[in-house]
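Researcher: Let's do a round of design. I'm pasting the structure tokens now; please hold your answer until I've finished.
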């Protein structure tokens, strides 16, 4: 029987020494391309501060200066005053020579336009490569004229005060009006009136004459919205009932403003009842005397209630 040969123990290759690894690195690095890249890196690090100090300052170049004509805003409606952009820049103390390369410019412009009473929302500010500044804006739109002891004040559909000085006297008759408001605006244009009667009337005006379309308002021969008496400043606009008064003095009990959660017909149903009334009678004015036309109830299409002539002439609501 043959004897098995003893196994020989194989030796692992020895790890290269540090000196050998350094030699291999130097050999690998000794290439023209590697040497060139290394030289460029060293030179760039050495000369960069010098070059930066002597490069032209683009942020002070006239070519990159902000100009009002280079600011493009969303198409304004007809009630936005002329010189709107220049006025915003002036109010915010943003000079026209400010650099377009200023990292704070977009934020400063957004804040400046957001403070403008005519602007409901700044959606986007973009500084383009063509050196144009494009600003996407959502504008407020005049909806209602509020009659007060100090004159008329315009508000938008949310009851936000708009600049009265931007309207001519003839303009004040191009929108629905509300009477019987006992308060005055407490803040500057761009702030809420903080009177629930104004807020509710603005919502009703926005429905009857959306974005200044007075067709429905004129078809019903309306003169004004009449707010209820003695409104508590803490009351909800949804709980207030409004009347409409026609050019001939006829009163229409409308009820709550659109959007209120009330047990009344919808605004469209109420308008349908007024349309039916006109089709049947041709006008809201009748020779039999003053009536209150009530369109608020589900159990009757329209109800008529005779009222005193003094109440008809005053156009003051007692509905709540």
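Researcher: That's everything. Go ahead.
Model: Designed sequence:
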């Amino acid at each position: 029987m043959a004897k098995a040969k003893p196994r020989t123990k194989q030796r692992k290759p020895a790890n290269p020494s540090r000196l050998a690894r350094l030699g291999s690195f130097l050999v690998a690095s000794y290439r023209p391309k590697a040497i060139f890249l290394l030289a460029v890196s060293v030179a760039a690090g050495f000369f960069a501060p010098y070059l930066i100090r002597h490069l032209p300052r683009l942020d002070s170049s006239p070519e990159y200066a902000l100009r009002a004509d280079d600011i493009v805003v969303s198409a304004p409606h007809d009630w936005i005053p002329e010189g709107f952009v220049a006025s915003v820049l002036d109010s915010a103390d943003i000079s026209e020579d400010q650099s377009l390369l200023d990292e704070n410019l977009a934020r400063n412009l957004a804040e400046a336009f957001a403070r403008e009473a005519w602007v409901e929302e700044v959606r986007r500010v973009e500084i383009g490569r063509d050196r144009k500044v494009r600003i996407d804006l959502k504008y407020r739109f005049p909806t209602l004229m509020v009659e007060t002891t100090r004159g008329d004040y315009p508000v938008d559909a949310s009851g936000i005060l708009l600049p009265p000085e931007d309207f001519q006297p003839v303009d004040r008759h191009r929108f629905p009006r509300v009477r019987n408001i006992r308060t005055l605006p407490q803040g500057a244009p761009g702030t809420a009136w903080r009177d629930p009667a104004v807020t509710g009337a603005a919502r009703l005006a926005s429905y009857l004459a959306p974005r200044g379309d007075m067709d429905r308002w004129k078809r019903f021969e309306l003169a004004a919205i009449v707010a209820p008496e003695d409104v508590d400043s803490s009351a909800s606009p949804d709980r207030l009932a409004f009347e409409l008064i026609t050019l001939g003095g006829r009163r229409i009990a409308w009820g709550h403003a659109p959007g209120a959660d009330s047990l009344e017909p919808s605004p469209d149903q109420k308008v349908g009842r007024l349309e039916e009334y006109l089709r049947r009678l041709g006008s809201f004015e009748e020779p039999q005397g003053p009536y209150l036309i009530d369109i608020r109830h589900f159990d009757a299409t329209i109800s008529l209630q005779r009222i005193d002539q003094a109440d008809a002439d005053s156009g003051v609501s007692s509905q709540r």
